[in-house]
Amino acid sequence: MAILDVQDLRKTYRKGKHPAVDHLTFAVEEGAIYAFVGPNGAGKTTTIRIIATLLRPDSGIVRVGGYRMDTERRDVRRLIGFIPDEFGLYGEMLVHEYLEFFAGCYGVVSEKRAPMVADLLELVGLAHRRDDAVQTLSRGMRQRLGVARALVHDPVLIVADEPAAGLDPRARVELREIFRALQEMGKTIFLSSHVLRELDDVATHAGIIEQGRLVASGPVDEIRARLRPHRRVRVAFHGPADDAQAWLAGRPQVLGVEMVPPGNRNGGPPALWVTLSGDEESVVQLLAELVTAGFPVLAYAEEQDTLESLFLSLTQGVVT
Ligand SMILES: Nc1ncnc2c1ncn2[C@@H]1O[C@H](COP(=O)(O)OP(=O)(O)O)[C@@H](O)[C@H]1O
Ligand SMILES: [Mg+2]
């Protein structure tokens, strides 16, 4: 079931201007980690603010868990944990007070607040900073505190706008692990980013937005398959690869073979790029044939497209 359903959303900030969000339609399945990616100004924050019920669209409907964001706003808010791109921090407050404060805002009864806050601090790796002032936290820690804050009412859908922006690589990895843990707890995660690398290895689904329009949406594997109907395998050999190259070129399922340039091998063994028709089965089959034919295969690996390369092939936008 789609936990988030966005139908024909449209928003123009100023008359006569290009719409910030233009007939946007997509759905996010329960349990997904959905990466909403696009260059700066593409309309990500606008979309997210509409989903979070903070901004009204000109037209279109968002449903969260079946509830409409316009007529059932309270239900939508109950189901969503929103992590904005920037939020005011209450710097003087202690970390645990900060979370207790928000738990109170969401109506969590006072006896439950302290144990819940302890659990949340544990989850986001801030238990050791419980009694420190919020303003003493590093950027990465504040971002994690923001995640904890979004979880105080136990939402089913976490919506985060550029959560990894400005974090160092280590802090980014830590944040990613938290999102993975939340997914394992059964939550659905919707994350935006203009930097593809941030979400590449965590996303199960992606939506790619450019100038307010969606250019692709779905499981990362499907987007990949659609853009790259052929498979590419890198085969390395013990010894020269020329015979193998000639032999491979004659196989019916092989569409092309080329030598991997020595410069790309870092002094490693000779290797070939093989382009194949067919599915995974065809990739497996070819290895069996190579080995049966007596070629000394050292390594055999299918090329993995990154989300970034997919994004670049879909858009003209600049990715940093
Ligand atoms: N409050 C606003 N008033 C006028 N224009 C805005 C406002 N917020 C965003 N925009 C414009 O809408 C477009 C989409 O912006 P935004 O949703 O913030 O994109 P993103 O988050 O992908 O960078 C941009 O052209 C931006 O300049
Ligand atoms: Mg934004």
Q: Taking all residues together, what is the mean pLDDT?
A: 89
* Overall geometry: elongated
- Distance N terminus to C terminus? 34 Å
Give Rg in angstroms: 24 Å
- Given this structure, which CATH class of the largest domain is correct? Alpha Beta
CATH level-4 homologous superfamily of the largest domain: P-loop containing nucleotide triphosphate hydrolases
Assign the CATH architecture of the largest domain.
3-Layer(aba) Sandwich
Number of strands: 14
Roughly what percent helix? 25-40%
- What is the SS-derived class? alpha/beta
Major beta sheet, specifics?
Answer: 6 strands, mixed
Number of helices: 10
Bound molecules: adenosine-5'-diphosphate, magnesium ion
Report the β-strand fraction as a percent range: 25-35%
Strand order of the largest sheet: 6-7-8-3-9-10
CATH topology of the largest domain: Rossmann fold
Uncertain residue segments = none
Count of folded domains: 2
Q: What is the succession of H and E elements? A: EEEHEEHEHHHEHEEEHEHEEHEH
Q: Could you please describe the fold and organization of this structure?
A:
- The protein is α/β, with parallel strands linked by helices and 320 residues long.
- It folds into two domains: 2-225, P-loop containing nucleotide triphosphate hydrolases (Rossmann fold, 3-Layer(aba) Sandwich), CATH 3.40.50.300; 229-304, 2-Layer Sandwich (Alpha-Beta Plaits), CATH 3.30.70.260.
- Helix content is 33%, strand content 26%.
- The protein is built from ten helices and 14 strands.
- It has helices at 44-51, 73-79, 95-105, 110-123, 139-150, 169-184, 220-227, 242-249, 280-292, 307-314, and strands at residues 2-11, 21-29, 33-37, 59-64, 67-68, 80-83, 157-160, 188-193, 205-210, 213-219, 231-237, 254-259, 271-276, 297-302.
- A six-stranded mixed sheet has the order 6-7-8-3-9-10, sandwiched between helices. Strands 2-1-4-5 form a four-stranded antiparallel sheet, with helices on one face.
- A hairpin with a 2-residue loop joins strand 9 and strand 10 (213-219).
- Helix 3 packs across helix 4.
- The longest helix is centred in the middle third of the chain and has 16 residues, at 169-184.
- The radius of gyration is 24 Å and the shape is elongated.
- The model has no long low-confidence stretch (mean pLDDT 89).
- Adenosine-5'-diphosphate is lined by residues 13, 20, 38, 40-46.
